[in-house]
Amino acid sequence: MLRGYYSAASSMLAQQRRQESLSNNLANVNTPGYKADQGSLRAFPEMLLARSETKTIPTKKTLTLPMRSEIGALNTGVYMQEVAPNFSQGDVRETNMTTDVALVNGDIPDENGGLFFTVENIQGETRYTRNGNFTVDPEGYLTTQQGLYVLDENANRIQTDGMEFTISSEGVLTSNGQATPLGIAYTADANQMVKEGQDLFRMEGGQAPVNARGVAGVQFSSKQGFLEGSNVDSGQTMTEMMASYRLFETNQKVLKAYDQSMDKAVNEIGVVR
Question: Where are the transmembrane segments (predicted)?
Answer without folding.
Answer: none
